[in-house]
Amino acid sequence: METKLEELQAMLTEVEFNSRFSILEAYHVIGETILAVPKEERQDLIKSIAYHTKKRVKKIEYMARFAQQFPKLDSRLNEGKNISWEVICAKYLREPKDQENCDHEPVAVCRICRKVII
Prior knowledge:
By secondary structure, the chain is an all-alpha fold. About 60% of the residues lie in helices and about 0% in strands.
């Protein structure tokens, strides 16, 4: 019984990973599509994609940044099975906000500037 449970857990882990990675692949293709047009046309394309896909403009901009920072989807992504769009955004794509307003002792991760704090 325990072996079967381990097999089921491994299967779920693999399926969840494949699902999250498929989303990353789609977002990467969208980002590549945006980067393929001249710079002066990108913002209009981003707005159009956002409108037609019912996604936020910021999310579409992150897709373009994702493709720019990772020209090959598998390069430099060392997240293992924990990879997800949220992890990619948090670690690589979001701009820190109001860093100068943070004055804290290190404890965890500051939600404002994302510095590791203790």
